Amino acid sequence: MALLRDGERYAFELVRELCDAHGLVTSEGTIYPLLSRLRKEGWVNTVWKESDSGPPRRYYTLTATGRRALDEFAGEWGPFKTAVDNLLDSEGSHE
User: Any idea where the Transcription regulator PadR N-terminal domain is (predicted)?
Assistant: First the structure.
């Protein structure tokens, strides 16, 4: 959802950007079910647009509800990451 924060994207763009991010290898087979779920939740809208280089593409944009969900997740991420980091750091101290 963070990749949609600044505007619309189509699924292959999302896959490419996730693959470019270190350690976030994914595929269209992974992203399409996730995007479908986000659409059903009302967090993204879709629109079909003609493409200059092939068949029409479905573009995804965040809805207002999706922005709120992303903001909520972002607010929870810091404490969650800290808790996981603490668990990982303490794992070595028990040996």
Answer: 2-72
Both tokens assigned to 56: 């029409």
User: Tens place of pLDDT for every residue, the chain, 95 residues?
Assistant: 999 999 999 988 998 888 888 777 788 888 899 999 999 999 999 999 998 988 999 999 999 999 999 999 999 999 999 999 999 998 656 55
Q: Could you count the other beta carbons within 10 Å of the beta carbon of residue 44?
A: 22
Q: Give me the number of domains the chain comprises.
A: 1
Question: Which alpha helices (DSSP H) does the chain contain, by range?
Answer: 11-20, 28-40, 64-91
Contact call for residues 15 and 28 (beta carbons, < 8 A)? yes
What is residue 59's DSSP assignment? E
Please give the residue range of the domain that contains residue 36. Answer: 2-91
What is the number of other CB atoms lying within 10 angstroms of the CB of residue 15? 20
